[in-house]
Amino acid sequence: MKKTSDEPHLRIKAEVNSTEDLEKVQSAIIRLFEPLQFQTKTVGQQTYVTAESSEPEPLAKFSMLLQKEQIRSAARRILLQGMTDRKITFFLNKQVASAGHISFCEPFAESPLGPIKVEIDSIDPIELVDWLAPRISQPQRERPRKRRK
User: Fold this and answer.
1) What gap in Å lies between CA 142 and CA 132, rounded to an integer?
2) Is residue 26 within 8 Å of 14, Cβ to Cβ?
3) Strands lying side by side in the sheet with 87-93
4) What are the chain's domains?
5) How many Cβ atoms are within 10 Å of 27's Cβ, its own excluded?
């Protein structure tokens, strides 16, 4: 994806539970999106780690992982479901991310430690989805051969 002034803007947010180490949560995120600069915010008694980027590299890494794990079709469907006019929102399992893998999840109750929330602002979210998780062209099937007796 070429860099322009209309580059997508990535925002990531994850809750850091009292049983979790802040650096391990950051490491889980870095395994999927890199490079990033983190901020830590505390709201009441809850701590959150956040990161933002308008650079293409974090999204390029995520796209490469989708291809490597051969989940582009499933990812494409989830990205399109989470799309609004100028934003794509989806959630990732924090525990799976800590192992360097991608597993999409629901915002509540599916990920025991809470999910990683990902938002991407884009002028053209469909073009962004096409770049992150391009359609996989189906190989043309060979015509079945008749068996010879």
Assistant:
1) 30
2) no
3) 38-43, 46-53, 9-16, 115-121, 87-93, 104-105
4) 9-132 (3.30.1440.10)
5) 13
User: What is d(CA 28, CA 94) in angstroms, rounded to the nearest whole number?
Assistant: 7
Q: What is the DSSP letter of 35?
A: S
pLDDT digit string (tens) for 69-123? 999 999 999 999 999 999 999 999 999 999 999 999 999 888 888 999 999 999 9
pTM: 0.87
Q: For 61-102, what is the HEC assignment?
A: HHHHHHHHCCCHHHHHHHHHHCECCCEEEEEEEHHHHHCCCC
Spatial distance between the Cα atoms of 86 and 126, rounded to a whole number of angstroms: 9
Q: Which residues contact 72 (CB under 8 A, 6 or more apart)?
A: 66, 133, 134, 136
Task: Record the tokens describing residue 92, joined without a space.
Answer: 């990732």
CB distance 49 to 24 below 8 Å: no
Structural tokens at position 48: 């959150």
